[in-house]
Amino acid sequence: MSIVLSQLDHRSLPAVPWSLSLAAIQEFEEDCYRYSSESDDEGSLFSIDLNCINHKTKPDQMIQDERVYHVAVDLMKSESSMDALLWTLSQKVTHPSSNNKAVHHVKLVHVFPPIRFIPSPLGMLPRSTVSPKMVKKYLAEERDKRTKLLEKYVNACSTAKVKVDVMLIESDTIAKAILDLVPTQNIRNLVIGTTKSSLRKLGSRKRTGIANQILRKATPETSCDIKIICQGKQVLIDQIIGSPSSRSSNANSLSTQEDQDQE
């Protein structure tokens, strides 16, 4: 198991052994929380590489030309996130140099807000005013919830025999946090799930969803292939970010890649 950290001092964190289970996410997060609470960084990235669990392979043994997909995971909208992941897992192609499937690597990207308030009998209280014991207990509960919710995504990758990382980002701005990863993590393929109701908003002025924010804020320098998935199908982004007239159309006029292939 390897750890990749952004905006953190690697030397300040303990060494992590190669052989760890998914449950170790909680213990690792606890160390990261302890560190981040002592730092002044507004956002932190904790990346957990589960490759050795599923493949028992170290980085220096991995194929260099593997195709890597980063899949944004919203634990509050698990259906659209799972659709995006399953679409990604279905994108296996035959490696040109052999009859075997190309080696794929999925990185699950989950952004969660910093915990500033802790529940108490008196209501939600600022974290700084609550005892360390209460803070630790609440953080442990939140980590446990997050780990259990992430587990099904990791299991889906394991079932498909695809290598998987879990990238946890602590930030208030989801779209910005994800886009900031593009240059620092050398992201080339970013997959984002969206619901049908959010897809309608992509074609209107009420464009507040994460997928739309990422599309609007992405620049030519982003150098990343962004794919939007709705109900298991890829949405054609050109129709979303094209001319004003095309953006004013409703969701029914937004075709998918599958629709075009059938024409």
TrEMBL record:
Source domain of life: Eukaryota
InterPro entries cross-referenced by the UniProt entry: Rossmann-like_a/b/a_fold
Region (Disordered): 243-263
Biased composition (Low complexity): 243-255
Name of the protein: UspA domain-containing protein
Organism listed in the record: Rubus argutus
Taxonomic lineage: Eukaryota, Viridiplantae, Streptophyta, Embryophyta, Tracheophyta
